[in-house]
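Researcher: Structure prediction, please.
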Amino acid sequence: MQRRSAVKNIALTIGVAIVLPSWANAWNKNSFLKKHFSIASSLENLLAEIVETIIPKTNTPGAKELNIQQFIPKMIADCYDKKAQEVYAKGFGLVDMNAKNSFSKSFLECDAKQRLEVLNKMSKSDNSDEKSFIQLVKGLTIKGYLSSEYVMTNLRIYEYAPARYHGCVPVKK
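Model: Predicted structure follows.
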């Protein structure tokens, strides 16, 4: 009985060893980029200004400088369902529409204070698409910013094991 399971396991291992290299060789940069949820360059500029409004540049780089506008579409394509992708695609038009209704100019033409006002208005809106878009982009902006190389290497201190061990500490009686 054990001989059968051993032969079966050996055959399975040999089969995997034969098939795995041909399967893994099909991986390349283009196969990973096919899933990319691409947007037009004008919309990428709009997204860059939205993320910069959410996390502006201060004494640390802003979200735009850390290229969070490239992180968000990749996350939308790889990790979110069709409904979220549709909300994301519709959201850009809603941002511009709100800017035009409030200030008679596009979001890109508004100054920083007006942009922030547009995004705040959308986040408090009764329209579920507006609210969902802002929540989605805001959440991904924060996630992208906090996981960026700059923040992880310069602002956060990595500890291999949390807490410290002090072996030679006097104990009070």
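Model: The two ends are 64 Å apart (CA to CA).
Researcher: Thanks, that helps.
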